Input
Amino acid sequence: MKTVTENFIKDLINSGVTTFFGVQGGACARIIEAIIKNKGNFIPVLNEQSAGYFAHGYYKANRKVAGLVFTTGPGLTNGLSGIAACFYDNVPLIVLVGQVVKKLNIASKTNTKMVGFQEVQHLKVCETISDYRYKFDNVEKYLNQRKNIYHNIKNKVQIVEILDDVQRKLVEKKTKKIESKIHFKKKLNPKILSIKNDLKKSNKPLIILGNGIFNIKNRKKLINLIDNSKIDYCATWGGQHIQSLLPKKNNYRGLFGNHSPGIVNNMIKKSDLIVCLGCSLLQHQAGKNYDNFGPKAKIYFVNNNLDECKRAKIQFGKRLKFFNCDIDEIYSLFKLRHNFLEKKIINNKINEIYPVNLFSEILKSAKKNNNLIFSDAGATLSWTFQGANNLKNCPPIYSAFNLHAMGYSNCAAIGAKVSNIKKNILCIIGDGSLPMNVQELSWTKKYPIKIIIIDNEGYGIIRQTQQDFYKSVYYGSDFKNKKSSLPKFNISKILKSYDIPCKSITKYKHLAKSLNWLHKSNYTKALILKINYKARVQS
Output
């Protein structure tokens, strides 16, 4: 006979969840022990927040789901940002959190703050950043709920709370092996054919591809069909990875949204039909005033996430028609295309201004060296994508697009390396984001990555907002103002403390040579780029 914990972990590993990130603790020690006994891979990160970012990068690199393991109380609450990043970017995740013994787990029943030591109502806390939540407070409940958990492993964020004493309970019934079948066939709504009909009638149709394209089976075939259909199409920042799938890009017009080139944004204004595939159309894409997004357009919204569909309907009202189905299911609509109108080819070039040209060179170098790229938040992310827009074939760029969390990229990059992917991993991070989870750099000895640190002396994108709206009062956003600055730190010394060789350059003419140095060799290196303090993100 096996315990609940041993039984559960064995089934998770058999279902394909073989790698777990987390921090050891009293209420989860048994869970971690079961992972090791079943020959799973447990990575003890140094901060629970980092764990979710590791899992995010791990999934983006190899499309495999990771697990998180936390102890009760602060173990889980520290990890909330990482869980939220996965939830809002539709990265599947299973979170295992220990809980106090049943006798003391009565805070929710007695309406008190805490009875057991570090007793927190984990499921209630995670209610808005997870799809499903389970509580194992007896063996029968585990046996009844396990099937649902395995069926949702590959497409949902799930929180599983296991009481400390229940972890040790023996499972006396013989449990059957569960197949992790996660795709359920939905009936195709006949009305979806209206997309095909309206595309034929439209004079200025536009297709928008989002991060959801990443998860579909036929993404390459679908994109090629669209590319050869004479319909203009573009991508959100989260959908940028499609560029690496396309040899031609006949009708690809670039990225859109905040701080993107004006070409696509202007096309959206003039379009009479917009078809959104796997997008979210949140504020950083559609803007604050939704009436100004495609004001002349009928909007079709295709997404297999009903919550996303409902939210988009609230945004755009009667102008939007949503279809809650897998994008794979509308593949035939584009396959059956005929006689779409020729569109005038639009020059997709933008003026290269500093520091966008700098990032274009960084990305060219990354492509040459077969890199997957993980970019952090703020100005660093904006410049990365503005640089990407100058390139014909940019390598895939990943980030925590919707939560936009600082301190994401170094963790995600290491998580990607944990997946044993054959590609090299490049992390692009700002000097403001680096201190957030700097401790995880200790993992780069075992999981080598390349790091580019953008040193613009603080939170550049926040400083830009303060310039525009707050009379240039840079409180808490830079390292220069003596009265209100962030605490100054020496980047080179921090890197050297982790035995990471680094170079720092201040002039563009030294970039090419420094990039060659960075990518040469298989161990971790870092390149610090000193960016003009006054450099702004293009709007």
Q: What stands out?
A: The domain at 190-335 is CATH 3.40.50.1220 (Rossmann fold). The chain has a mean pLDDT of 85. The longest helix spans residues 48-62.
